[in-house]
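Retro notes - structure team

What went well: the batch runner handled both jobs without manual restarts.
What didn't: labels got mixed up in the shared folder, which is why I'm recording both outputs here explicitly, each with its sequence directly above its tokens.

Job 1
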Amino acid sequence: MVSEGQHAKAAALRALHGGGIFVLPNAWDAGSAVMIADAGAQAIATTSAGVSWSLGRPDGQNLSREEAVAAVARIAAAVDRPVTADIEGGYGSEPADVAVTVTGVIEAGAVGINLEDSGAPGGGLFAPAAQAARIRAARAATADAGLPELVINARTDVFLFGIGQPEGRLDDVVARATAYAAAGADSLFVPGLLDLGTLATLTGAVTLPVNVMVGPGAPDVAALAAAGVRRVSLGQAITQAAYTLVRKAAAEALTAGTYDSTAGADSFGDINGAFRPADQDQL
């Protein structure tokens, strides 16, 4: 049963796409989600890479549906913000597989999803028509689950994986965006594309709000906004930095016998105080 609170969170996430630009620092577990919310994020997005790493797996659709849904449930229970779930390729290639996954993450408390068009049988990307069918199944599942307003962020990996000839990639993405919008997508996620001129052309050519993935060296949020981008995701960047610190601090302590890598951390009290006891959960 979808609660009124979940409906309100879905409406809040949808409203963020209505104008301007917003930033999603991606979480990989309940603790990181709390820290991101405490920093002021309006919504929490998950990162499949971070969730996979937290479970001791490599990224790249190596989670089971059950593992992914359980991670979403822990995150949604830990924060009072809208949660949008990275469901990778849907944990199955058929539209029915995607529908089952969408139903599961709604039951877990999510109000948005990323669904990518990579992971087609045999490698490469799903053909636009096949991916559109998967998006239609996702949209139908939202209605069947009682949350038709869930936000579907349709991810295309044309630029990320360098699909086709460089001169044809933008046209491919525009064509996919048209098909995905007709199938029920609410926004278009194009990781691997950060050229501001190409982004400006893309945002002027498609009806869907455009989402990009950023990290060190990427254009800043103001520049992306000027190019028409509406949604900015950090992807695995924060998780990557956190895991790098773990390895560096461990190596320092084990070799040099010093602990300087952990300098500058927030105080125990500041971090501990961001969490609420389980008996205070009101979600």
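Job 2
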Amino acid sequence: MPPLLELDAVDVFHGDLQAVFGVSLRVEAGQALALIGANGAGKTTLLRAIAGLTPARRGTLRFDGYPLAGLRAERIAALGVAMVPEGRLLFPSLSVEENLQMGQLTRRAGAWTLARVYELFPVLREMRQRPATRLSGGQQQMVAIGRALMCNPRLLLCDELSLGLAPLVVEEIYKAFARIRAEGLAIVLVEQDVARACAVSDTMLCLLKGRVTLAGPSHHVPRERIAAAYFGE
């Protein structure tokens, strides 16, 4: 059986500027991979390449053995890849419920429905008719996660779930994250909080200026080794 997600020697560019250099990784079904690194390390760019939003120029990307090269983002989403983007990117003219329903555009069948999302985030049921951008930052993040789940993905790409949120809200988000993992989804997580990222993942990969400096199991990695990979010491 092939891994659910497989990247081999992937290069990604922004115009003429190379942002990701020869990255290889594997994510098995049901596994969580933490992508860590300082700002500008190439983490978001790598997520966008997997989702088909920023094409990889070299290397191979496969999802469940299926080549992703040249596929539009909509096609990759239909295969079962969903993204929770940094900044949430909700539709300001739509209500909470309408934003959630946008996740159904891929028409993938599965267990995640409005009722299941409201069970995961009960506060959203109470606010389902409100404009999504009238919610707090944490509640907007819940909408973004719920919208991605409504795609019924096999792989969830999460970019900075805790960015700009209060600690208590972050705890609530990550409690839900544990329940999502229990459903068997594979996850690639970008998170600035390295300790949290390692605690909720199976494997980790550290990027520095677009290059892998450390990869392996998340747990029991010495802090000194992570710091050296993170800062290039």
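One thing worth noting from job 2: The first strand starts at residue 5 and ends at 14.
We'll revisit the folder naming next retro.
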